[in-house]
Amino acid sequence: MALYSEKVMEHFLQPQNVGVIEDADGVGEVGNAKCGDIMKMYLKIDRDIITDVKFETFGCASAIASSSMATELIKGQRVEDAMKLTNQAVAEALDGLPPHKLHCSVLAEEAIQAALEDYRQKQERNKE
Ligand code: FES
Fold first, then answer.
1. Ligand 1 pocket check for 17: Cβ under 6 Å
2. CB-based contacts of 77: which residues, under 8 Å, 6+ apart?
3. Mutate to test the pocket of ligand 1, among 60, 105, 109 (most ligand atoms within 8 A of CB)
4. If you measure from the C-alpha of residue 123 to the centroid of ligand 1, how many angstroms do you get, rounded to a whole number?
5. Is any ligand 1 atom within 6 A of the Cβ of residue 45?
6. What total number of domains does the chain contain?
7. What are residue 56's DSSP bridge partners?
8. Could you count the other beta carbons within 10 Å of the beta carbon of residue 58?
9. Which domain holds residue 32?
């Protein structure tokens, strides 16, 4: 069996939503100390709906595929639903990742959580 599913290869070779959102409402950056990979997520949110999402990933094929899939999964979703996105959901949507590559999907979950947390904090600050 091939190490990577066709979906992983597809999202690695043609990742969706790569880039930067200059006026993002939430930005999250996370890294994995062991492998050194870094992922940054940008969210544009309008009335609690994620209207746009972009990412920059400096990392392995699985990390790029996971970022791409994760952005596709949360685009158009409500903030509270995006908060529930798990790395398992990302890995499943990619038709699985090799066990030693599951941490790459964890990075995607964490980057989205970090961007949503940044959004939440900005909202709080705007209320003050
Ligand atoms: Fe670390 Fe993929 S090897 S994110």
1. no
2. 49, 50
3. 60
4. 32
5. no
6. 1
7. 40
8. 12
9. 6-127
CA 44 to centroid of ligand 1, rounded, Å: 26
Domain for residue 16, yes or no? yes
Q: Is 39 left (phi over 0), alpha (psi -120 to 50) or beta?
A: beta
Assess whether the C-beta atom of 5 lies below 6 angstroms from ligand 1.
no
| Residue 71 included in any domain | yes
Give the burial class of 64: count Cβ atoms within 10 A of its Cβ; 0-12 exposed, 13-18 middle, 19 or more buried: buried
Q: What is the mean pLDDT of residues 12-26?
A: 98
CATH number, residue 98: 3.90.1010.10
Task: Summarize the confidence of residues 40-55 as an average pLDDT.
Answer: 98
| Mean model confidence pLDDT for the chain | 96
Enter the tokens of residue 118: 């940044």
56 is a domain residue: yes
The residues annotated with a catalytic role in the active site are 35, 104
- Angle of the 6-13 helix axis to the 61-74 helix axis, nearest 10: 90
C-beta 93 within 6 A of ligand 1: no
